[in-house]
Amino acid sequence: MKREVTVNMGEMAIGGGDLILQTNGVGSCLVITMFDDVIKIGGLAHAMLPGRHVAGIAVTKILQEKDGIYTGEAKYVEEAMERLVTGIVEQGGVAERLHVKLIGGARMFHLLTASNFTVGMQNVESAKTKLLDMQIPLESEDTGGTIGRSVGIDLSNGLVTVRSVM
Amino acid sequence: MITDFQRDELKEVVNIGAGNACTALSKMLGKKIGFASPNVFVDQAEQVWPLLGNPADVVSVVLLKIVGDVSGVIVIVLPAKDAIVAARVLTDNHRKYFDFLDDFDRSALKESGNILSGASLSALSKFLDMNILQSVPEVATDMLGAVMGSIMVDVNNDKEYILVFNIDLDIEGMAKGKLFFMFDPKASEKILEATQKKML
Questions:
Q1: Segments making up each domain of chain B, as ranges
Q2: In the list A48, B27, B93, B183, which could disulfide-bond B163, CB 3.0-4.6 Å?
Q3: Which regions in chain B score pLDDT beneath 50?
Q4: Is residue A103 predicted with pLDDT exceeding 90?
Q5: Domain B4-199's class?
Q6: In chain A, which residue's Cα lies nearest the Cα of B139?
């Protein structure tokens, strides 16, 4: 029996074994999945904004463990990626071995963006910049467009499923 | 924070506006359009989520931006099925089969959004002596999390406090929707201050 765990917006989870991490309704947000296929440990983060613009808001939660699942806050793409990598490495993973996938970054409304550089695009850009910084290759992406997505990652084999309703 | 008096004051203003709007729309269409008394609250932006439902549910959303002296968004959230029913009622059954929204239906939903929010905003604008305008409407149908996520990012989905008006709508007893006015943190402060001044 596989355990399914739902990851909410602005949160992340890391685990392994028979776990499926699922997150629903990804619009301009960005989902980052990472998986180490040797030790079979991976994680998923559902981040909303590219980076922290306002200083001074303290990050209260670091990763917390419950039933072998590590969860934490992941509001910003840059921080989420750092935490995913550190979290997986702490459990014996190797950064160079990670299979990284990006999903989301859509443009749901034309009204909400004054320029052509939407929040979704900014999220994708900042994720790619961060990957370059960390020297980790991007395996694949399903980003952009105007539709919402639902994402799941099966942590027994690293299979990522993307669904849309439209 | 909002005092009971401020809340009642704002509630009454929006209530009158929404009442006028519903009457206008209902007269125009010859259909019953009901609405519940508005719910006004100031809370952390992320607290709006539980009012909306499951992020995986498919909804149709009419979005208008509030511009002028204060900024924010107006959102009408209808479950996808209710949106189709609403469109059917609004357009007086213009098609034989209604299983999705076509351009005409979207246009009808947009226009009703325009009417509903316009009257409330102008009432609010008069009361506060502020210049409050609304943008052209836009309709999107997708998972709740996806559409609202994008909107909340724009308003401010954080620990900061925002002013929210929430009105439940009912079209001919067949379609139910929720109308939200959300002001960004700065605008919320401005409106509350102006309300405070009004009472002195």
A1: 4-199
A2: B183
A3: none
A4: yes
A5: alpha beta
A6: A109
